[in-house]
Amino acid sequence: MALLHKIVSFTPNHHFFINKRHPISSINSITPSTSPFTEKHSTERYQRDQWVYQNTTTSCNHNPFGDSIGSIREDDIALQLPELKKLLQVLKEKRASEGKCSEGKCVPGDVFLVGTGPGDPELLTLKAVRVIKSADLLLYDRLVSNDVLDLVSNDAKLLYVGKTAGYHSRTQEEIHELLLNFAEAGATVVRLKGGDPLVFGRGGEEMDFLQQQGIHVKVIPGITAASGIAAELGIPLTHRGIANSVRFLTGHSRKGGTDPLFVSENAADPDSTLVVYMGLSTFPSLSQKLMHHGLSPQTPAVAIERGTTIQQRTVFAELKDLPEKIASTGLESPTLLIIGKVVELSPFWPIPTKQESCLMQA
């Protein structure tokens, strides 16, 4: 049995701010501070996770996003441990009453790694919806939209395990332990991830860890951001005579830093489409390296913030100009980058070119 007490508490050195969500009538009027996603400071997130704090000195009816939020949420994991242990015991007792436990050991439950797509809940698969509604416990990431969480059964428990730059609510090792503990207690555990769980989602690591512990893992794919967002903008990732391949890149190296672009020499292919995930902060370096290795400065490109959601913002520009335009627009994470001649085929491409008729005839 994996030990839940291995999960240690920590004190993040961050200031907390919250802006209430409001109706949006035009995507061009959106401010970056509002988000459809379950950001770590989201009011919706706290309301869905408040079962965790039931036995703390803080009332669940109290708004934790006031002036004293730092003191309330500092020991996030430490506050949750008592409730998590209690939930484990409840699950074991339930499984025992169903005849699925004997001598303190339960028949392990299944773990589902579920992709929720780029943000629009209507892009979920039917299988994903069915599994979400049947789960006992759901561990969800930052880029899982609140609309998706609305599908969760009232009897199920939600636990936020999201990560963002400079703030990890859980380490990857802690997430592994949580998945294992609850699966061993016989729970049906769903791990919700934005996009597809096996495309830059670390789903492969979680699957490998659990399988080594004898836990049955099922992967339910999601529409990855590259496909969902490109379709939203009318950009074909491949196109006969223009792009004969597509390449997905991560904007961050495993060890972090600002220069993960070891593949840029091979990536500078004018006949390929490049899609860069998590590359907002490193894009100035990437664009320079791509041009240095031969990609034309006039290559069409686009940056898309919060694609497929009502709060989507896009910046189209030639490769040489895109970093400056991103900075002046103030795009924030999550932002996807698409680079290649296919971007010019989008009906939203704003720059007339002499090649336009040739591209459309290809």
Can you characterise this structure?
- The protein is of the alpha/beta class and 362 residues long.
- The protein contains 12 helices and 14 strands.
- It has helices spanning 43-49, 69-73, 76-97, 126-134, 146-149, 172-184, 203-212, 225-232, 264-267, 283-292, 322-329, 356-361, and strands at residues 101-102, 105-106, 111-115, 137-140, 157-160, 163-164, 167-168, 189-193, 217-220, 245-250, 272-277, 300-305, 313-318, 335-339.
- The protein has a 5-stranded parallel sheet with strand order 5-4-8-3-9, sandwiched between helices.
- Helix 9 links the parallel strand 10 (245-250) and strand 11 (272-277).
- The longest helix has 22 residues, at 76-97.
- The termini are far apart.
The amount of beta strand, in percent, is 15-25%
How many E strands?
Answer: 14
The largest sheet, given as strand count, sense and whether it forms a barrel, is: 5 strands, parallel
If helices are DSSP runs of H or I spanning 4 or more residues, what is the number of helices?
12
Low-confidence stretches: 1-33, 56-75
Name the structural class. Answer: alpha/beta
- Lateral strand order in the biggest sheet: 5-4-8-3-9
Average pLDDT for all residues: 78
Q: Span between N and C termini? A: 60 Å
Helix content: 25-40%
SSE pattern: HHHEEEHEHEEEHEHEHEHEHEEHEH
Radius of gyration: 22 Å
- What coarse outline follows from CA principal-axis ratios? elongated
